[in-house]
Amino acid sequence: MPSNNSNSSGLQRLIAQLAPLLIVSALVFALPVLLNNDFLLNKVARYLVLGILTISLGLSWGFGGILNLGQAMSFGLGSYAMAMALKLKTVPVHTGASGLPDFMVWNNVQHLPWFWEPFRSLSFAIAAGLLVPALVAAALGWFMFRGRVTGVYVSIITLATMVVINLVIIDQQSYTGGFNGITDLAQLELFGVAFDAYGRATYYLVAGCVLLGLLVAFAFTKSRAGLIVQAIRDHESRVRYFGYDVALYQIFVFALSAAIAGLAGMLYTVVMEFASPTFLGVQLSLSVVVWCAVGGRQSLVGAFLGAVLVAGMQGALSESAAFLETWTLVMGALFVLVVLFLPKGLAGLAQATRRWVAQRRQAASGAVARSVSQTEGST
Question: Given the DSSP bridges, would you call strands 193-195 and 188-190 parallel, antiparallel or unpaired?
């Protein structure tokens, strides 16, 4: 009997923890019913993709304690992997001579480079979009965490690495499109379904990946490895004292975070229909940190909602004539206010509200119990 009670209470706790995640996912899937506008759906899909990117940072920063200021590097690598595959599938009028991408023809490239050849396969491109960011992060993490590099130095190294890769992509214009990036892409086709950037199929693809990203990140945080990662975040030396390979766990969460960011990057190329060096830019990388802090870095759903809300506000303000020149100041002020008054972000505010409601209910039930007791005593 005690084991049954324990299992029941564990199941209830799991359902309670999954509830916010499932509610948000259900709302995301239901949005096309309310929003009958393909242009707006495309815009929302972009914000949802940025939400997936922010979930990935929340995993490494909020749960692993690793502030990665170069998270856009993984995002950009995933984006370019998908763009290379879709570029090779464009109709002949959009490609250069001999099937070469047009920018290669403009730069006098005679043959398709060897590292482009595998991207004729979409399956390879999808695998590369996940694995290349993860392997780059694992290699970087190996040197950092094996060398016990921590704190601000991790942030500086990740930021510097992202800048270097960004400069390489811009410099190698013959093979990457340089400043212009990779444009004129074919539509993604999977299992006989064509994903038009402004079509509902693409939106539902993004919505499905939102659910997948949340579930994978949630499962990791509740796994044994995820709990050890959180223990490392709180007391690294104590975990090392108990004999755990701290660096190995840090590398794993760092690589998993990069793979999720790579998935977001691939989706962003499908939604935006191009890949650009700005996807590996410092501005995007710092914006992700802001979104994560505003939503709540120790909450997956909070980080996701923070990205969607703040990116949505950024889009609305930057398109408004009234805030055309000042929208960056408004967003900066919002960030400062959240950091000062909501150190745990919007998720912290929701948790405080939930605790306050529970305390009020407990106080009310206690008052009723006392009243009943007094009534029984008087009779």
Answer: antiparallel
Q: Count of CB atoms within 10 A of residue 56's CB?
A: 29
Phi (first) and psi of residue 173, to 5 degrees: -60, -35
112, two tokens: 């398709």
Inter-residue contact 57 to 298 (CB < 8 Å):
no
How does pLDDT run along the chain (379 residues), one tens digit per residue?
455 666 677 777 778 788 888 899 999 999 988 887 888 999 999 999 999 999 999 999 999 999 989 999 999 999 999 999 999 988 765 565 567 888 888 888 888 899 999 999 999 999 999 999 999 999 999 999 999 888 899 999 999 999 999 999 999 999 998 989 998 899 999 888 899 999 899 999 999 999 999 999 999 999 999 999 999 999 999 999 989 999 999 999 999 999 999 999 999 999 999 999 999 988 899 889 988 988 888 889 999 998 999 888 888 877 776 666 777 777 778 778 877 887 778 887 777 787 888 788 778 777 777 777 777 666 5
Q: At CA 134, angle to CA 315 and CA 309, rounded to 5?
A: 20
- Provide the whole-model pTM: 0.89
Helix count and strand count (H, E) for the chain: 15, 2
Cα–Cα nearest to 273, from 365, 188, 354: 188
Residue 188 bridge partners (DSSP):
195
Cβ distance 288 to 307 under 8 Å? yes
